């Protein structure tokens, strides 16, 4: 069952209404509870705060509505990624990870999966199909990749990986379910950091796993319950609130990014721009076939580390910070974390500021140095 993004967005705000009794609060109540009233046989009831929580369930219902698949909430994007590794892999399995994606899954694999006898290999996102997938139990894609914004062909990877007997996991953090639906493109599992645009207000961390495979969902739920990697109810409540406005925020952010990327490309101080929405971008053709929008992240390369730092730190409407997807535009030099990018490479997360005001501030900061 795949609805249009507009119909998913329109119905999202009314999901709760179906369950309301007369006199119930229309907004979601926050339920802070470790215990529930539980006399007699506990089967079929909420039992304990590590197993169930009504506020998580409401956030999961929203995520599931957006993903068209059951969703399982986690306390961070990395907790969701750890859950799929530890719930679905065993000793002797091999995983393929992107060499140019978010770096933490690679460090996790190196430090903790390897010693459990789970091996991994790295491959660049743009050549993910090269070499095939024989011998892999799990093929993990991140498209567009963070921070380089390269893309890989999800349907082609899924077809080849499935033929080789692997499951395909897609990290959809950079796009959100309004920008790309990897399950519809053939992925078996989606993981995402709702810390970013889905919450949108940069005030908490959250993540989720979604899949149309009931066994995968059951395994991930067991992992959460047994490992104790549970989200806090207040964070779930904040995500529920954030998701109500995700569609309008994402629309503003993507529209502004399309305009700003074009102008950056023509600016004499900018050496290179990466944005999947630009016709000449290496990601563009593939992005146009599998993404619903081109996203709100722009990669721009300035002449030097000093120029890039000055651009970021002196722009009145750019918050120097790591992370992305918040209402405030934010930027950072990714080389400061050791990403394999140019020293002058800046990842710009376009926020919700009015577009022309934001562009004027960006242009002023570029022109000043
Ligand atoms: C931020 C991010 C994560 C991790 O999310 P946390 O909530 O910080 O744990 C995973 N994948 C991608 C692509 C990210 O950008």
Q: What's the quick description here?
A:
The protein has 369 residues and is α/β, with parallel strands linked by helices.
Q: What's the CATH superfamily of the largest domain, by name?
A: Type I PLP-dependent aspartate aminotransferase-like (Major domain)
Mean pLDDT, to the nearest integer, reads 97
Ions, cofactors and other bound molecules: pyridoxal-5'-phosphate
CATH architecture call of the largest domain: 3-Layer(aba) Sandwich
| Biggest sheet layout | 7 strands, mixed
Estimated radius of gyration: 21 Å
Number of helices: 11
Shape: globular
Number of domains as seen in the coordinates: 2
H/E topology pattern = HHEHEHEEHEEEHHHEHEHEEEH
Overall structural class, as computed from helix and strand content, comes to alpha/beta
Our estimate of the beta-strand percent is 5-15%
CATH class of the largest domain: Alpha Beta
Question: Would you identify the regions where 5 or more consecutive residues have pLDDT less than 50?
Answer: none
Strand order of the largest sheet: 1-7-6-5-4-2-3
Number of strands: 12
Q: Quote the distance from N terminus to C terminus.
A: 52 Å
CATH topology term of the largest domain: Aspartate Aminotransferase, domain 2
As a percent range, the share of helical residues equals 25-40%
Explain the overall architecture.
With 369 residues, this protein is of the alpha/beta class. It folds into two domains: 5-243, Type I PLP-dependent aspartate aminotransferase-like (Major domain) (Aspartate Aminotransferase, domain 2); 247-367, Alpha-Beta Complex (Aspartate Aminotransferase, domain 1). The protein contains eleven helices and twelve strands. The strands form two sheets. It has a seven-stranded mixed beta sheet with strand order 1-7-6-5-4-2-3. β4 (138-142), α5 and β5 form a beta-alpha-beta unit. α2 runs parallel beside α7, α3 packs parallel to α4 and α3 (77-88) packs across α6. The longest helix has 20 residues, at 246-265. The N and C termini lie far apart (52 Å). The mean pLDDT is 97. Bound molecules: pyridoxal-5'-phosphate. Pyridoxal-5'-phosphate is lined by residues 76-78, 102, 142, 146, 171, 173-174, 193, 195-196, 205, 207.
């Amino acid at each position: 069952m795949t609805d249009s993004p507009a119909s998913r967005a329109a119905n999202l705000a009314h999901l709760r209404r179906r369950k309301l009794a007369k006199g119930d609060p229309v907004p979601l109540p926050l339920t802070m509870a470790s215990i529930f009233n539980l006399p007699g046989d506990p089967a079929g009831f909420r039992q304990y705060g590590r197993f169930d929580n009504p506020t998580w369930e409401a956030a999961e219902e929203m995520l599931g509505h957006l993903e068209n698949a059951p969703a399982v909430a986690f306390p961070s994007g990395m907790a969701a990624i750890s859950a799929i590794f530890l719930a679905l892999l065993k000793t002797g399995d091999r995983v393929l990870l992107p060499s140019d994606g978010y770096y933490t899954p690679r460090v996790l694999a190196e430090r903790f999966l390897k010693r459990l006898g789970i091996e991994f290999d790295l491959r660049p996102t743009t050549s993910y199909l090269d070499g095939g997938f024989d011998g892999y139990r799990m093929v993990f894609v991140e498209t567009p990749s963070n921070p380089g914004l390269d893309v890989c062909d999800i349907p082609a990877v899924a077809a080849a990986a499935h033929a080789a007997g692997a499951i395909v996991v897609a990290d959809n953090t950079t796009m959100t379910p309004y920008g790309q639906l990897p399950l519809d493109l053939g992925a078996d599992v989606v993981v995402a950091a709702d810390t970013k645009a889905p919450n949108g207000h940069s005030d908490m961390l959250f993540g989720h796993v979604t899949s149309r495979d009931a066994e995968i969902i059951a395994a991930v739920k067991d992992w959460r319950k047994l490992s104790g990697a549970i989200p806090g109810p207040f964070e779930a409540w904040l995500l529920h609130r954030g998701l109500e406005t995700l569609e309008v925020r994402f629309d503003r952010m993507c529209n502004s990014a399309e305009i700003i990327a074009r102008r950056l490309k023509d600016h004499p101080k900018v050496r290179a721009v990466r944005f999947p929405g630009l016709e000449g971008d290496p990601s563009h053709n593939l992005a146009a076939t599998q993404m619903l929008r081109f996203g709100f992240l722009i990669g721009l390369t300035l002449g030097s580390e000093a120029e890039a730092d000055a651009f970021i730190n002196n722009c009145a409407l750019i918050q120097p910070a790591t992370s992305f997807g918040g209402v405030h535009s934010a930027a950072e030099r990714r080389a400061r974390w050791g990403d394999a990018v140019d020293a002058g490479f800046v990842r710009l997360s376009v926020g919700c500021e009015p577009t022309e005001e934001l562009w004027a501030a960006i242009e002023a900061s570029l022109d000043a140095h």
